[in-house]
Amino acid sequence: MWYNNLSDYLKQKYNKKLYKLALDAGRTCPNRDGTCGNRGCIFCSGSGSGDFAANRQLPIGQQLAEAKERIQKKLPAEDVGYIAYFQAFTNTYGSVEELEPLFMEAMGDAEVEILSIATRPDCLQEDILDMLERLNRIKPVWVELGLQTIHPKTADYIRRGYDLPVYDRAVLALKEREIDVITHVILGLPGETVEDMLATVEYVGRTRTQGIKLQLLHVLEDTDLAQEYREGRFETLTLDEYIDILELCIRHLPKDMVIHRLTGDGAKRILIAPKWSGNKRMVMNIIRREFAKRDVEQGSAL
Ligand code: SF4
Predict the structure, then answer these.
(1) pLDDT given for residue 103 in this prediction
(2) Among 43, 58, 165, 294, which has the highest number of CB atoms less than 10 A from its own CB?
(3) Whose CA is nearest to atom 2 of ligand 1?
(4) What is the per-residue pLDDT for 249?
(5) Does the C-beta of 186 come closer than 6 Å to ligand 1?
(6) Which atom of ligand 1 is least distant from the CA of 50?
(7) If you measure from the C-alpha of residue 224 to the centroid of ligand 1, how many angstroms do you get, rounded to a whole number?
(8) What value does the mean pLDDT take over residues 236-255?
(9) How far is the CA of 152 from the centre of ligand 1 (A)?
(10) Pocket of ligand 1, candidates 38, 120, 123: which has the most ligand atoms within 8 Å of its Cβ, to mutate?
(11) Domains of the chain and any CATH numbers
């Protein structure tokens, strides 16, 4: 069993373990403020997919220090490093004047090795790309793009608010600037078949972004998806189904693509379904055990 997982990749590259510090740049999202929508993506909770992010009222330096302290309390004293992760909402939605100082502040911490910025592909205008290029010369910058699916029907249903070519252009522009891209894909979106999900994953494989996050669809409180779920309009995946789909996806991904995540990341306190996904450690153990049994190998179906 082998797949190119993030923690091995980081350990090899940095010779130590890197931990993510969830930071909040105080942004909103064009899919929420009326620019391309008011209600956000159908699955997105009020926190803009940043349910573990820090207190957005605090300056970045303080958020960073508090996040480090929380991690250090749980760790034995060892040489560690950090990824400053701007996860909540759309972190390139704003002017360069507003954003660059925030990112610089996070990067300025000597223990921060990587700056990771989650955003939408339609929020990467030329001046923002130039800023990312400047930052990438100081420390590696990762840009995480929420694609979720390549299928227009599902994209409409989830109210993603941009078309596939926008993603393609963003990936190209970032690659030209030698900035690593990580694509988010959601498995289990309503109406999608296993073939649909695989087609999305294969597409991402062909774009050869540096990494991919495979996320199980979570139904969270405070989302329109929760309403649909309660009305019985769709069902979420079982753990067995999810493992089968994951296996298929991994076998179809290029070997050099780093897999940043194999499950979802929804906060347990607002998780409605599937309930089994709430115990992340147990789920990961089961997935690894099954993968070992089936001798899953990334890229074996290519
Ligand atoms: S683009 Fe991101 S932050 Fe905006 S509504 Fe969709 S999931 Fe939420």
Answers:
(1) 97
(2) 43
(3) 89
(4) 98
(5) no
(6) 3
(7) 13
(8) 98
(9) 17
(10) 120
(11) 6-294 (3.80.30.30)
Task: Determine the pLDDT at residue 53.
Answer: 61
Please provide the average confidence, as pLDDT, over all residues in the chain: 94
Q: CA 96, CA 131: separation in Å to the nearest integer?
A: 7
Q: Is the CB of 119 under 6 A from ligand 1?
A: no
What is the pLDDT confidence band of residue 267, given thresholds at 50, 70 and 90? confident
How many angstroms is it from 261 CA to the middle of ligand 1? 18
- CA angle 144-207-174, nearest 5°? 50
Residue 10 pLDDT grade (very low, low, confident, very high; cuts 50, 70, 90)? very high
Question: Two tokens at 293?
Answer: 């049994």
Give 168-182 pLDDT, tens digit per residue: 999 999 999 999 999
